[in-house]
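Q: What does the assembled structure look like for these inputs?
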Amino acid sequence: MIPRPLAISLLLPLAGCATKFQHYDFAQARLPGGGYDTAKLIAELKASGANGLQDGSWFPLIHLERTEFVPTSANLPDGYVLTTVSASGPIFFTGRNDRRIVDGRGALVESAAGNWFGWGLLHHAREHDIATTHGLRRQSHGRTLLLFGGNELRYRADAPVANDAPPAPAATPAAAK
Amino acid sequence: MNHRQLAAFLLLPLAGCASNYDFSAARLPDGGYDMPKLIADLKASGERRLHHNEWLPLLRYEEVEFEPATGSPQGNYVLKTQTAVGPIYFATRDDERVVGSAGAPIESSTERRFGWGLLYHTTQRDVTTTNGLRQHTMWRALLLFSRTDSRFAEGKPAAAAPAPATTPAGGN
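A:
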């Protein structure tokens, strides 16, 4: 076991590397359900005149958190991409990430959410949703201890589809709740 | 007896074939399959699925299967074709195509492996979305070099006709 003074002496210099980068406070666009008000984000991005909205913090070996809202790149439908990443522990030992693509009106195009523990060796899972003409297409994948797990692909015709569905709550925390 | 005759003598008894449908009857001139005909033939057959497979140990395996799709809305169907050649499936190609009750495409995928996937592995998956045709591609070579790309094909209608299936049908 590492003595506490030694741990402090090792970690304190790293604290100097800790960074807080914020161009936008995403807590303002947080919905009570845990998701984000995409319409508000779109309006704020346009009003800002910036290429994107970003918020995040980094403390080496301890925690990384980043939220970003940017216009979609080429090959994707016109719209926006909301990305949230949250990781903890040494070298991203555990964490989760979410990536949500919405169209110009904030309706879901597709989303991918994943989480991992033990660098993904002990457990990792991922869920990928796409709004299709036949309902919400959900592809799930999970694996534990590299051996146990599986894949599942399911179309949910009863699930809300793109144009009238509210975005599912982003499970990663906003920067300042 | 030369080597070729000896190989044929050893392998032929192991060759197998099982079929309850001749897929060449539903083959289109462009190489694809006539989905409405497959749907109609499956219903008329009273079988749970239509299938055809051939197997020549260590040399070739081929399977074509058409059945109701699981995991998607009722009334959809899936056509799967699998071709493998070489010892222990050295090179393989898998195609899967999900269509609606009228034969309209919902999604399709193609996966190729060479050298059991260790030397080269590629997948392509097309999904008909509310924003056009979503094309996802991935390739990986020598386990180290890879590329993944997703794009929404501009100008392609959401209900684009499926690309021709290039894996051979049973009777071709």
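Residues 3-153 of chain B form one domain.
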